[in-house]
C-alpha cells in the first residue's frame, strides 16, 4: 500500500512538472536590442520595409553595435483560415512570413512578431485568445524569434494566466522565442512575470516628446520624463532574463538631439530593452551616432544586470548611479529644465551606496577616473569636485573606473 502511495505521488509530481514548462531561459541575460515598427509606422507595415530595415540594421552599424531583433508590431495580420490558423495580410506580405524570416536570418538578425492576449489586437486584428497553441506553432514554423504580446480586448481575463498560457504554448511549439509582455503595468507584472517572460512593459505607450502627456480621451501616452518617473520602485524586480521595459524608443522621431541623447542614456541606465522605433533606413548622422554609441550600450548591457537608481534630485537636476561589473559605475546627470544649468558634485562629500547590489562607491577611499560617454574623453577623476554645465533637456553621462 505504501509503495503504491509513493509511486502515485511520484507520478503526480512528474505530471505537474511536464504540465508546466518553464520559459526559454537565457534569451535575455542582458536586455534585448532591436527595432520595432510601431512608433514610426503604426499599421503601415509590409515585407519590403521589413527587408529594408534589416538591411539598414547592418549598413547603419546597428548590428555591429549589438542590435539583433527586427520586430513587426501590430497589423501584419490577414485572417484565420477555416481551421483557425492565422495568415499574414497577403497584399502587404505576399511572400509570406517564412520567407521574410529566412531573409532576416540571412543577415544574421532575428525576426519578431506581435500578438495580443485578447480576442482582438489594439489595431483590431485577430488576437490569440483561444488560439494560443495554434499561433505559437505557426510562429515556430515561420521561424519567429521574438513575440511581443499585447493586452487589448482582454475584458474578464486574468493577466498572469493569459500570459502563462502563451508561455506554455511557445514552449510546446519548441522554438526558442523571447517573450516580451506588453500589459502596460496595469496588473503589476513585475510581481509575477519573472518566470513568465523576458521583459514586461511598465507603462502605457510612449510619445515622442520629452516632457508632455498626450491625452487621447480614453487613454494617455507619455513623454520621456513621465515614463522615467513611473519606474520608481521597480528596479528591485529586474535582473538577467527579466527586465522592466520602459517602452520602445522615440530616438530620431521628433525630439531635439539633446532630448534624444537624454532619452537613450536614461533607457540605458534603466537597463530597459533598447528597441529603436524610428525609420532606420533614413536616419540623420546624429540619430545614428546616438543609437550606435557603444559605450552607452555597454552600460545597458553590463553583465551585472542592475538597474540604476536616482541618488539625488535638486532643482530639476537628477543624479543617477548604476553599479557595473568590475567595480565600475555609470553616473548620469539629468537636466530636466529647458535651460542649461551649472551643476557641481563633490564626490568626497557624497555617500553613494546601493542596498540592492550591496555595492558602495566609497569616494572617500577610492579614486575613480571619469570618462564622458558622449564624447569619449577622460575628464579627470573623483579627487576633484565635478563642476560642469549641462544643457537643457540633456544629460552628462560618465563611466567611473577605479584609478588602479
Ligand atoms: C499598444 C501597445 C503599443 C503598440 C500598439 C499596437 O498600444 O502598447 O506598443 O503595440 O498597441 O496597436
Separation, N- and C-terminal Cα atoms: 69 Å
Global outline: globular
* CATH homologous superfamily assignment of the largest domain: Aldolase class I
Low-confidence stretches: none
Explain the overall architecture.
The chain has 404 residues and is α/β, with parallel strands linked by helices. It folds into two domains: 2-300, TIM Barrel, CATH 3.20.20.70; 309-402, Golgi alpha-mannosidase II (Immunoglobulin-like), CATH 2.60.40. It is 27% helix and 24% strand. It contains eleven helices and 22 strands. The protein has helices at residues 2-19, 38-41, 47-59, 62-65, 97-106, 132-142, 159-173, 224-229, 257-269, 285-291, 294-300, and strands at 33-36, 69-71, 77-80, 86-88, 110-116, 146-150, 178-181, 199-201, 213-215, 220-222, 243-245, 274-276, 309-314, 317-323, 329-335, 341-345, 353-354, 359-360, 368-372, 378-381, 386-390, 394-402. A hairpin with a 4-residue loop joins strand 9 and strand 10 (220-222). Helix 3 runs parallel beside helix 5 and helix 9 packs parallel to helix 10 (285-291). The longest helix has 18 residues, at 2-19. The relative contact order is 0.11. The chain binds alpha-D-galactopyranose. Residues 38, 73-74, 121-123, 150, 182, 205 line the site of alpha-D-galactopyranose.
State the main characteristics.
alpha/beta; 404 residues; 27% helix; Immunoglobulin-like; binds alpha-D-galactopyranose; TIM Barrel
Concise synopsis of the structure shown:
By secondary structure, the chain is an alpha/beta fold. It is 27% helix and 24% strand.
